[in-house]
Design brief:
Protein name: Integral membrane protein
Number of domains: 1
Helix content: 55-70%
Order of helices and strands: HHHH
Organism: Streptomyces noboritoensis
Keywords: Membrane, Transmembrane, Transmembrane helix
Strand content: under 5%
Length: 145
Amino acid sequence: MAESTTESTGRNESEGGKLGSGPGRVLVWFYGVFTVAAASRSIVQMIQDFGKAPLAYVLSAVAAVVYGFITFSLVRGGERLRRTALVCCAAELVFVLTVGTWTLADKSAFPDATVWSDYGAGYLLIPVILPVLGMLWLRRNRAAA
């Protein structure tokens, strides 16, 4: 079956949904939920008492941006976004492991929790599992993007 290219996007019509289809839909859902959760958490915390734990609140905002970009990449598809999302998932895992270890080693460093505190224990450890699953899915679908 021949694939056609849309003039508005320059992408194959079948290209967009492959990363976000099948098991990818579950990833899209989780990343979408975590985008909203991290953004909401950081916005409320920054408005209420930014001075209490600015690093924690900024890290939650960074998490929201990373989650949002990965969500967009999975929905939109395409090889360039797939590769960029793969890098974002790897960076997300590094952040989760770094912040998780830091919060366990020095509780005083974070007067308030972030999405990535204690490896995401406040979110059922999903923040440490999600980037691994994301990287596996993105690598598996490199030809499908």
